[in-house]
Amino acid sequence: MKPTETETPIGGLPFKSRRRPLIVKKFGGTSVANIDRIRRIARLALESQREGNDVVVVVSAMSGETDRLLKLAHQVLPLPEGREMDVIAATGEQVTVALTALAIQAEGGKSSSFLGHQLPVITDSAFTRARIQCVEQGPIREALARGQIAVVAGFQGVDPRNNITTLGRGGSDTTAVAVAAALGADVCEIYTDVEGVFTADPRVCPAGSKLKSIPYEEMLELASLGAKVLQVRSVEIAMKYNVPVHVRSSFSDEEGTLIVPRDKMLESRRLMGLACEKGQVRVELIGAECRPGLVAELTYLLADLNVSVDMLCHSRGAVENPRADISFTLPEGELRRAQPSLEQFLGKLGATGLQISTDLAKVTLVGIGLRSDPGIAARLCRSLTQQGIHVSGLSVNELRISCLVESGAADRAICILHETFELAGEAPAEPLASATPA
Amino acid sequence: MKPTETETPIGGLPFKSRRRPLIVKKFGGTSVANIDRIRRIARLALESQREGNDVVVVVSAMSGETDRLLKLAHQVLPLPEGREMDVIAATGEQVTVALTALAIQAEGGKSSSFLGHQLPVITDSAFTRARIQCVEQGPIREALARGQIAVVAGFQGVDPRNNITTLGRGGSDTTAVAVAAALGADVCEIYTDVEGVFTADPRVCPAGSKLKSIPYEEMLELASLGAKVLQVRSVEIAMKYNVPVHVRSSFSDEEGTLIVPRDKMLESRRLMGLACEKGQVRVELIGAECRPGLVAELTYLLADLNVSVDMLCHSRGAVENPRADISFTLPEGELRRAQPSLEQFLGKLGATGLQISTDLAKVTLVGIGLRSDPGIAARLCRSLTQQGIHVSGLSVNELRISCLVESGAADRAICILHETFELAGEAPAEPLASATPA
Fold it and tell me: Stretch B338-348: mean pLDDT, rounded?
């Protein structure tokens, strides 16, 4: 990026009116896995600085390190206290920020590291899965003003009582986007081991192709549906603060995927892509008393159990026999935790039974206007059925259509739908560079 | 320790007047080297708490961990910046405090960990060798009031700008003593891999015996002279704030050595012990101009080079030929750094030469009143000379006599002097328990 004139220069010397573009670059665990790779990202950051940008780098722990550290904690206590877990886990990023700052110095640059408590990155007190409340930008601004590259520890923060917290898996993405939001950065670049966001996982569907851009809302759906490119929370923050996010590969110079407001889209696509979550279970509560607030009660119950429910359907029996059927899906791993409470709940409702179907996959098509065009859901069901794949559940909202199929058929379903909806075909796009927000 | 009545109960309910004894226990790297050992110190701490004490634990990094971390930094940059070194090094203790707190919880106790920046432990900004300026006791007091064992990270602090600092090798001793001083602890127990302070290193001199107690001043001399039991700075703080320090083994229940004010000594010994520093170099500046302030100039020069000079002697020639000879010792490793500046200095003085003798050892006898009794220095020289050991330098002050011998003869010199001064014999001592300060 070249230095840009600010829209409304506010007096002073000419150079005062010249704002340098600010880029936040986030590197994940595989990008800092060893000293050589750390040197590589140091060079990337310096190159960007030499091109005239202010550069902030956010790093994760070396890959495998967080697991190693948490294993230590679990050796001491099977269910370790969250507060102490976070103290241990935060050391992973603490090592990589300092090594990265040193690597930048080794390449002739200036750099300082910043830990979560040094900025600070203030979070709530939900240890091991804290949410960022605010990021203080002062220390980074000072470092940038001194010509330094600021290296910020991802994944970690402090709560208002100065306890160390961590943000959960993928939390460094969220740190990067939150730092970019606080600084009003021009772009937040997420370097990862994939090349961007794909219409479908290319390992499953070889026709899956990289998206040049995707709106925040659709990315949010994809992220929450098992396309493990970004932590969901990071997309929420990007959307809230209008931070352009560029997901790209650490191992190539190619452009990746821009996540932007809908009006900044590079291509006029309606359907974005397909996501798949395997290991799903469908739970049906049969013949419950049909009373007001029934679904609300159920969702509170499930929220208390911290169970991620999806595809909740509620059907009401005939007027003369007002019994309700409720069904929903949840990950297999969470069923064991939820089942006893669900059975108790059933008892209270006088329901006739709990029917559980296992070994399912949720295949989801993400796009815009999916609810308002019933033709899409129809095509989806028909094309799968024609190929002998049974669709055992369907849920539609504005941005996604999800269907339940047997796990064994999921990959084939992805490929069929990819072709049905011609997701590989790309609308002609403007060159990416010109779309980078100034 | 049993709960003790305070001297002057300040009104209120009866139990208010009862102050629980407070013990700070410091465990070094070998005591936290693995999960089993961490469990062991958790049990030790809980046992002490159950006996009615408030307990604060200070821990080092797992042995070898600090070296591993610093090696990472050196791989990136041969001379890494101190600020980033400290960020990396501080993670070692960060892991062990949390594991120790978890281990205490695993044993059924309550515990919280505290990092340097969380108390905070405020230091100056001399990265990698910072000095503690103050320790905030509030967070520890709160934890103790909740019935917790507070686990404090040794070795680390923050400077007034919230940069992470470390205190240098052995810095956890200093943390422990500073925490004990801030809290007005009844005793600071330093658990280590030796059984206490010895009259001479038993590996060198089998007759070396454990001291029951030693005054701060003499311990300071021993610590600074290569008896690697405690960091010198920790003894300085203990002396300044009158903190009783108990050096003892992590691997046995036996009493170790108490470091106390002279008037609390358990035994009436005059000579405390022998220390030895090998790898010494003697530098002689020959025939320098004899002008006022010469020695001051030299010591400033050496201080600028951060060279630890000892045994500085200054002799003045005859009146008709006023040339000065100056000699001093320094560690071999520091000679290379100092030599160019020394040669320059010589040139300015018109001195005739710089004579350097290598491969020397400094053997030091520590005790009280050594200057006022010239007989001791005489006996020292005579006994070594009689056994064929050449004494090439001698320096005497109130608390120590140091002599220079060839490195190869140092161990034998220690044994000879140990016998000459009958250091193995102990004066009858009061039982240790009764001397523990109330």
Answer: 84
Q: Which DSSP helix (H) or strand (E) runs through B114?
A: strand B111-114
Closest among A188, A273, A192, A306 to A237, alpha carbons compared: A188
- pLDDT band per the 50, 70, 90 thresholds, residue B152: very high
DSSP B21: P
Tell me the per-residue pLDDT of A79-125, one tens digit each, with 9 for 90 and over: 999 999 999 999 999 999 999 999 999 999 999 999 999 999 999 99
Contacts of A32 in chain B (CB under 8 A): none
- Summarize the confidence of residues A312-328 as an average pLDDT: 73
Whole-angstrom Cα distance, residue A391 to residue A29? Answer: 38
Instruction: Look at A99 and B76 and tell me if their CB atoms are within 8 Å.
Output: yes
Cα separation, B241 vs A174, whole angstroms:
47
- Cβ(A25)–Cβ(A48) below 8 Å: yes
pLDDT category of residue A39 using cuts at 50, 70 and 90: very high
For chain B positions 86-105, those within 8 Å of chain A (CB to CB) are 87-88, 90-91, 94-95, 97-99, 101-103, 105
Residue A87 class from Cβ within 10 Å (0-12 exposed, 13-18 middle, 19+ buried)?
A: buried
Question: What pLDDT shows up at residue A317?
Answer: 63
Q: According to the model, what pLDDT value does residue A64 have?
A: 93
Tell me the two tokens of residue B290. 């004899």
Contacts of residue A411, Cβ cutoff 8 Å, sequence gap at least 6:
A204, A205, A276
Whole-angstrom distance, CA of residue A343 vs CA of residue B84: 55
B102–A77 CB contact, under 8 Å: yes
Is the confidence metric ipTM above 0.90 for this complex? no
Give the full edge-to-edge strand order of the sheet including B323-331.
B310-316, B323-331, B271-289, B353-367, B400-406, B393-396
Residue B378, pLDDT > 70, answer yes
Taking CB atoms and an 8 Å cutoff, what residues of chain B touch A72?
35, 95, 99
Band of residue B374 on the pLDDT scale cut at 50, 70, 90: confident
In DSSP notation, B45-81 reads HHHHHHTT-EEEEEE-PPTTHHHHHHHHHHHH-SS--
Give me the residue from B77, B80, B87 closest to A94, CB to CB: B87
SS3 content of chain A, % helix, strand, coil (to 5): 35, 25, 35
B182 band by pLDDT with thresholds 50, 70 and 90: very high
Nearest CA among B321, B324, B395, B328 for reference residue B363:
B395
- Is the model more confident about A34 or about B327? A34
CB proximity list for B407: less than 8 A, separation 6 or greater:
B278, B279, B280, B359, B360, B361
Q: Is the pLDDT of residue B345 over 90?
A: no
Q: Tell me chain B's radius of gyration from C-alpha atoms.
A: 24
Which helix (H) or strand (E) segment is A410 a member of? helix A410-420
B371 — phi, psi (to 5°)?
Answer: -75, -40
Which residue among B99, B101, B117 places its CB closest to the CB of A117?
A: B117
Comparing CB atoms, the residue among B75, B99, B162 nearest residue A76 is B99
Question: Which domains, ranges and CATH numbers included, belong to chain A?
Answer: 19-193 (3.40.1160.10), 275-420 (3.30.2130.10)
B253 min Cα distance to partner chain A (Å):
24
